[in-house]
Amino acid sequence: MKVFIPRKTLSEGISLLERVIPSRSANPLFTYLGLEVRPQALVLFGTNGEVDLEVRLPADGEGEGRALVPAQPFFQIVRSLPGEGVEASFAQELLLSSGSFQTRLGLAPVEGYPELLFPEPTKGGEGPFPVRTHLPLGEFLKALAHVRYAASNEEYRAIFRGVQLEFGSKGVRAVASDGYRLALYDLAEPQPFERKAVVPARSVDEMVRALRGVQEAGEVHLALGPGMIGVSGGAEGGLSVRMAARLMEGEFPDYERVVPKEFALKVALEADPFREALRRVSVLSDRQNHRVDLLFTEGSKLLLSAEGDYGRSQEELSVAFEGTPLLVAYNARHLLEALGPVEGGVELLISGPTSPSLLQAGGGYRAVVAPLRV
Amino acid sequence: MKVFIPRKTLSEGISLLERVIPSRSANPLFTYLGLEVRPQALVLFGTNGEVDLEVRLPADGEGEGRALVPAQPFFQIVRSLPGEGVEASFAQELLLSSGSFQTRLGLAPVEGYPELLFPEPTKGGEGPFPVRTHLPLGEFLKALAHVRYAASNEEYRAIFRGVQLEFGSKGVRAVASDGYRLALYDLAEPQPFERKAVVPARSVDEMVRALRGVQEAGEVHLALGPGMIGVSGGAEGGLSVRMAARLMEGEFPDYERVVPKEFALKVALEADPFREALRRVSVLSDRQNHRVDLLFTEGSKLLLSAEGDYGRSQEELSVAFEGTPLLVAYNARHLLEALGPVEGGVELLISGPTSPSLLQAGGGYRAVVAPLRV
Questions:
Q1: Which secondary structure element, helix H or strand E, spans residue A334, and what is its range?
Q2: Which end of chain A is more exposed for a tag (fewer CB within 10 A), N or C?
Q3: How many C-beta atoms surround the C-beta of residue B208 within 10 A?
Q4: What is the pLDDT of residues B201-256, one digit of tens each?
């Protein structure tokens, strides 16, 4: 069994798998990369036990079969190959040649390797992923990228260490929270089924990375089964990816009740200048709570100010607002994180100086940010 | 006292001082940045106790005087200023304004700050730096960049943790060694005095960084005094830097005797393809000694090969050589480090499989690399 593949194509493929395959693992087989030769393709696969990833690359194969190579040396070698093309032939060892360079890599027996289950995009309603749908890929990536920051990093926060995907007749929602803050992103893509699935935040990161690699495909296929989510995308005959991720058990507690509904002040801002002013002013803020005061005054003025051990800073912005001018204080970091993925216009909806505010941006993004009690 | 300065100019100045001024120090005053307002300039200065650096920036000053600001918050604020220009006015506090942003930073009293002694380029033969010379700046930087890697990182290696500069009638030489390897770079710039000065490797790094900031100046002024070296460069009325560094006590033991003089094989190589082949082949090399074999054979062939736990690699290069074909093994890392700064052609002069080799490149660079005893 043998395969010919352009070096560039192979490099693209391994850049997607590089992060998933661990360099060390309690299960040494996880540190291996799987290679499957097919007549028109080289399929790379790997797992870290939480996420399984398969990348299909167009290639010229002779014979069919699978092999396992030690991933880290393989990645390093491929990155530095001298030729435009690569020939890989499999026997007792993998013989890789490119230009005047040759390498022989030991293979591990494929028998012990865990079976990776991926949804077949063409088959629905059966197998380990009975529920199927598809979404605009760009929108799906946007939803994940907008809420990811709000997921908890703390071990004991269990379910909050994931991003909840909600499918239903109203559309698809991605939501994340660490119990203190909340971010959600709604896609107006009504679904014929109701389902909630909590994907571990780290697996969300791998999912985003893998799907960005096939972004031009335009669509992502989603597949849900007991305790598993599958995503796939890519071009027929070109680069395509399939990923399966373990889901977390359980679902988020009712979070709708913390989303404020009534507001004393509605402010329209441009994300970029607001973000930059926040960053500048907060340099001198208190190192414990990163407090920044936002003082809204008549004449469409917003004065940002902060004070700490080294001194104090302030900056004035012109903003449009409706409602009662007031003073409200935030942890600048929380506000910056909530603003993180937003471009263009953003609305800051303030309930009052002591109750949660809502940050809202076009395209279905809402974030709950609690003011500092001062 | 007050100064107006373009934000970009101030940022450039700060980028040179940022690495020198520590964010923490046993002497808290070292974490402060000095600012000196002059009629046509803003002078920034700082020290880490080993290296003192002064950066002169063209600016529009009113009044004259010095102030100390906490460096880290000042750096962070300047990096994010919104306007094209910055106004800094000094009173009880520093009031910094740019666009609609204002900050007040607390000042520290300048009285406790150590006196920084820099050579005055215009005055020679007196003060703390009696010996003066100047060199082409680009060449001086090249010399430092070529030998720096060979300096020791180990605490107990004392003098080998520095780069020795040698001034004399034959020219100027930079040399570094860790006792196992040796790198030297000769500048054909005869000097009317004989002197050796060992600059700590870390101070060499700061020196290179600061002088790169004024590279277009074309010349560097060097000044030597008891236990100190000063360097300065820059444009009259533009950005200029002055640095003073403590020297290490003592000098290198006689190293000339380890530089091989007779060779069994002289090989002409191109640095880039040789380096890349070494990198590729060494991926699979033994993880302890990174052994790569170089086999020279009739027909101007060089076969590089390496073997380790995962497998083995080889690559053939066409090279020109004179002498007896032979097999020699090196630690690939040592060879790569010695090749590090070299561009274009390089000569590998091999005494034999068990005695030191010499790597030599145009412009005065020589590196001694010991083969692995196999």
A1: helix A332-339
A2: C
A3: 14
A4: 999 999 999 999 998 889 999 999 999 999 999 988 899 999 999 999 999 999 99
Query: What is the Cα–Cα distance from B27 to B223, expressed in whole angstroms?
Result: 27
Residues 6+ apart with CB under 8 A from A218: A136, A137, A138
Write the DSSP assignment of A56-112 as a string of letters: EEE-EEES-EEEEEEHHHHHHHHHT--SSEEEEEESSEEEEEETTEEEEEE-B-GGG
ipTM of this complex: 0.85
Min CA distance, B282 vs chain A (Å)?
Answer: 9
Angle, in degrees to the nearest 10, between helices B7-17 and B71-79: 140
Look at residues B91, B1, B76 and name the one whose alpha carbon lies nearest to residue A313: B76
Which residue intervals of chain B are DSSP H helices?
Answer: 7-17, 71-79, 137-147, 201-212, 271-282, 332-339
How many angstroms separate the Cα of A324 from the Cα of each of A368, B130, B346? Answer: 20, 71, 74
Of B243, B25, B227, whose CA–CA distance to B116 is shortest?
B243
Per the CB < 8 A criterion, the answer to whether A235 and A217 are in contact is: yes
Q: Give the separation between CA A293 and CA A285, rounded to whole angstroms.
A: 10
CA B165 – CA B133 distance, rounded (Å): 13
Q: What is the DSSP string of B322-340?
A: EE---EEEEEHHHHHHHHT
Span B150-177, pLDDT tens digits = 999 887 778 999 999 999 999 999 999 9
Decide: A232 and A245 in contact? Cβ < 8 Å: no
Rounded-to-integer distance, Cα B109 and Cα A35, Å: 67
Contact (CB<8Å) A103/B311: yes
Which pLDDT score is estimated for B134? 95
Would you tell me which residues 308-327 of chain A have a C-beta closer than 8 angstroms to some C-beta of chain B? Answer: 309-317
For residue A341, give how far its alpha carbon lies from the nearest alpha carbon of chain B (Å): 19
| Structure tokens that stand for A339 in this block | 């603003």
Residue A366: CB atoms within 10 Å: 21
CB A350 within 8 A of CB A265: yes
Instruction: Give the gap in angstroms from C-alpha A111 to the nearest C-alpha of chain B.
Output: 19
> pTM of the full predicted structure?
0.89
Closest by CA position to A50, among listed A222, A226, A252, A204:
A204
Q: How far apart are CA A102 and CA A282, in angstroms?
A: 55
A79 touching B (Cβ < 8 Å): no
Which residue of chain B comes nearest to A301, CA vs CA?
B100
Dihedral of alpha carbons A113, A117, A122, A125, sign = positive
Question: Using the beta-carbon criterion (under 8 Å), do B101 and A281 form an inter-chain contact?
Answer: yes
Q: Give the 3-state secondary structure of residue B281.
A: helix
Residues with Cβ < 8 Å from B131, sequence gap 6 or more?
B193, B195, B223, B224, B225
From the CB of residue B109, how many other CB atoms can be counted at a distance below 10 Å?
9
pLDDT band at residue A121, thresholds of 50, 70 and 90? Answer: low
HSE-up of residue A92 (Cα within 13 Å, Cβ side): 1
Exposed (0-12), middle (13-18) or buried (19+): which is B254, by Cβ within 10 Å? exposed
Confidence tier at A125 by pLDDT (50, 70, 90): low
Q: How far is A43 from chain B (nearest CA, A)?
A: 22
Residues of chain A in contact with residue B70, where contact means CB-CB under 8 angstroms, are 310
What are the φ/ψ torsions at residue A333 (nearest 5 degrees)?
Answer: -65, -40
Closest partner CB to B80 (pick from A76, A101, A276): A276
Whether the CB-CB separation of A20 and A53 falls below 8 Å is answered with yes
